[in-house]
Amino acid sequence: MAREAEILIVGGGIAGAATAYYLARHGREVALVERGEIASEASGANAGQIGATGWGTMPDLGSYLTMGSLQLFKELQLDHGYDIEFRQSGSLTAIHTPEQYDYMRDRVLEMRSQGSEVELLTTREARAMEPEANPALLGFMYTPLRAQADPVKATRAFADAAAQSGARILTNHTVLGVAPRPEGGYSVESIRGEIACGSLVIAAGAWCGPLGRMLGLDIPIIPVRGQMWATESLPPSVFQTQSSAESAHIWSVDDGADADTPPELTHKDGLRVTRHLYGRQRRNGEIIFGGDRQMTGYEKAVEHTGIEVNKGHASEIIPMLSSLPVARTWSGLMPFSMDSAPIIGKIGLRENLYIVSGLASSGFGRGPMAGKLLADFIHTGHRPQVLAEADPGRCVTESAVG
Questions:
Q1: Which of 151, 245, 371, 381 is most exposed by smallest CB count within 10 Å?
Q2: How sure is the predictor about 400, in pLDDT bands with cuts at 50, 70 and 90?
Q3: Hey, CA dihedral for 357, 361, 367, 370, is it positive or negative?
Q4: Which long-range contacts (CB under 8 A, 24 or more apart) does 62-66 make?
Q5: What is the distance between the alpha carbons of residues 397 and 213, in angstroms, rounded to a whole number?
């Protein structure tokens, strides 16, 4: 049975759910379709880390997405009553080698000069906050504004808030085709019937490319597999979110990008080029870590050698992890743009077509504000100036013919 919506969003991750919520709050008639359940892809499979270092002296898109999202997560839990397990815990980045120490020292000085809230700590100072941290490490970068939340609960909270504000949330609606309508707008064919809309928002994460091809467009979003592991539930043992300076140091020298590869991956041409790490302890007691970023097409199967490498890396920071078995593993596909910048805004090659994607490995921590900025743009017709950095016009093109 055909249905209609003023604005239709394809994708039930955190960016799509936030877009639906803020459009509905503007009083717009909006529907969201998701092929599975809300948060069934990367928005529900990530580590739940929320990165923020402050607005800085000259706020850019990165500042808006991180600091703005931080405030929206706070509002969701503290003002609207959703229990998303939000906690502004701060974050520690471990320094393993003298070369990493020099890099992080200079990085902290640069960030502080630009107004960021970061500190370089001795290992002794860090262990006063994180007693299980390895005393043999050379130091830590401390980022006090960073936070954490449960990704499934948070994404579904945004979708519920959207529904409470009048949006229609349609799950298990796999999209089979999209086509412009002669009278304007779009016809979206799903396994549950046709939905006609005046404006269409592509928020399909790693699947933006196939969706774009339905409209004759090349959207350069590359699916990148991330994978994670968890311990059994333990008493409180890890208090900040955790990361390592290793990958940032390597990527500062060579980010690995070329014509076929987005920047800052852990693997290139099938070979590992660096280790990347992030993790935290959940409220339920699980300690979770992940970090690999590998181009595997749409293959999501966990690669256990990578899990062991990641566990070894995490154990260098929190030695107690070395003796703990892996209780479960999982993976997801992240949407990387070829130039590492988000793609948020109006696709000028088609009428009333918008996109919010390219948030890479930090989509959970940046998705809420990305959705709000796009919703404000759609509602007012005026692009927020900060979205100039994310203009789809820089990279979305017509598909090559034949």
A1: 381
A2: confident
A3: negative
A4: 64/369, 64/373, 64/386, 65/342, 65/359, 65/366, 65/369, 65/370, 65/373, 66/362, 66/365, 66/366, 66/369
A5: 10
φ, ψ at 213 (rounded to 5°): -65, -25
Q: Could you report the per-residue pLDDT of 176-200, keeping only the tens digit for each?
A: 999 999 999 999 999 999 999 999 9
In whole angstroms, what is the distance from residue 71 CA to residue 256 CA? Answer: 33
| Mean pLDDT for the stretch of residues 165-173 | 97
Token couple for 281: 């302890």
Residue 312 phi, psi dihedral angles, 5° rounding: -65, -40
Who contacts 330 (Cβ-Cβ below 8 Å, separation ≥6)?
Answer: 45, 227, 228, 302
E-state strands within 37-185: 49-50, 91-95, 119-121, 139-143, 147-148, 168-170, 175-180
Strand 186-190 to strand 271-272: parallel, antiparallel, or no bridges (unpaired)? unpaired
Measuring CA to CA, how many Å separate 176 from each of 23, 195, 240, 274? Answer: 25, 11, 43, 38
What amino acid occupies position 233?
A: S
Distance CA 14, CA 363 (A): 8
State mean pLDDT over 280-301: 97
Place of tokens 């199967």: 301
Alpha-carbon distance of 393 to 378, in angstroms, equals 16
Relative to beta strand 168-170, strand 119-121 is: unpaired
Return the DSSP state at 215: T
Q: What is the largest CA-CA distance in the chain?
A: 68
Residue 134, SS3 per DSSP: coil
Distance (Å, whole) CA 59 – CA 52: 12
Closest CA to 378 of 203, 240, 191, 245: 203
Q: What is the pLDDT of residues 83-96, one digit of tens each?
A: 999 999 999 999 99
Q: Give the pLDDT score at 401.
A: 57
Span 366-377, average pLDDT: 98
Look up the pTM and report it. 0.97
pLDDT per residue over 287-296, tens digit each?
A: 999 999 999 9
Kind plus residue range of the DSSP H or E element containing 2: none
